[in-house]
């Protein structure tokens, strides 16, 4: 058995590795088993064009993490395809976040207001005042109790409305803000009493954040709150386990309100112990930092030019030849580039032991009575 993601391959403790699959020989036969290290934190990317197996591979990783010691997998599931993880003890959550876990400065962008406009800056001020008021009365943004043990009074959309009605602003500006708050409320993701993000990492049970049907901007708000919340929880010493954030369709979350939190995980997440895995069929739509900061790259087949170009950025001095020419073509086959061992291998990803709910619908599979 080989372990990728760590320099020293000897005395591998199986509770601290995840079985990825097996080496794939040139003649298509399976070689030795390949595991990934989950003892240390990692940043990884999983690439592949549609249908090549990247969500499946993310599921393999989540299953393995569910069986590993000292870690907590959290899966961002925009398409609702990770429900099968309940068979590995996973919990499926329709995520809610505390309104105060999104910084006041981000609220205008979140609801589609220009932060420099009258309405945008009024919303910014309103949220800042409501959150400050909550803290003054014992509220803590993402914890359960405030310092001193006072019960928390987390900010709510209602408290934003209260501060809005007292703000010194023209009625028309106030009305615009009120309409945008109503939009945010309609997403159904905000709840002043939402469980703290650190609760997702309290045990080893995989948490699947089911975002199917949630609008993209709202999903980005959730991803921001969760990414930042897991990072802060480790920095503040609120969780013992090492969280692993696995994000499917990750291209959808860069460039929007989740972007700064995801970049923080990529560049600084490993130091407090947060691992981050981005899966996407559009590597070209990820920022370069996603590839340059990743120490593990798992790539299924890619063909589009911008995606293959992003791959070229991962070409390290220890790799001979270009990566694109080494990509395997079969479903579930991947090239794994590992910084720790400075190697690249072709791997056949193992079968899942829990059901995979992705894949394209096919008319030929319909049973007709
Ligand atoms: N390692 C594997 N072993 C066996 N079958 C696999 C493996 N990986 C993928 N498959 C098969 O290929 C199908 C497509 O995989 P998957 O849903 O992961 O594609 P995808 O690359 O995530 O595509 P999409 O972009 O549409 O989500 C799966 O439903 C499964 O049947």
Give a quick summary of the entry:
This protein is of the alpha/beta class and 369 residues long. The protein contains 9 helices and 12 strands.
Describe the structure.
Residues 346-369 are annotated as: Disordered. Keywords: ATP-binding, Helicase, Hydrolase, Nucleotide-binding. It comes from Halorubrum alkaliphilum. It holds the Pfam family DUF87. The protein has nine helices and twelve strands. The chain is α/β, with parallel strands linked by helices and 369 residues long. Strands 1-3-2-12-11-10-4-9-8-5-7-6 form a twelve-stranded mixed beta sheet, covered by helices on one side. The structure holds adenosine-5'-triphosphate.
Low-confidence blocks of residues? 143-149
What binds here, in terms of ligands, is:
adenosine-5'-triphosphate
User: Oligomerization state of this entry?
Assistant: single chain
CATH class of the largest domain: Alpha Beta
CATH superfamily descriptor of the largest domain: P-loop containing nucleotide triphosphate hydrolases
CATH-derived topology of the largest domain: Rossmann fold
Structure summary, number of beta strands:
12
Tally of helical segments: 9
Mean pLDDT across the residues is: 91
> In percent terms, what proportion of residues is strand?
15-25%
Pairing-aware structural class of the strands and helices? alpha/beta
Helix content: 25-40%
Shape: elongated
Taking strands numbered 1, 2, ... along the chain, how are they ordered across the largest sheet?
1-3-2-12-11-10-4-9-8-5-7-6
Main sheet makeup = 12 strands, mixed
Distance between the termini: 47 Å
Number of domains: 2
What is the correct CATH architecture of the largest domain? Answer: 3-Layer(aba) Sandwich
Output the radius of gyration. 22 Å
Order of helices and strands: EEEEHEEHHHHEHEHEHEHEE
Family: Belongs to the HerA family.
Region (Disordered): 346-369
Domain Helicase HerA central: 19-225
Keywords: ATP-binding, Helicase, Hydrolase, Nucleotide-binding
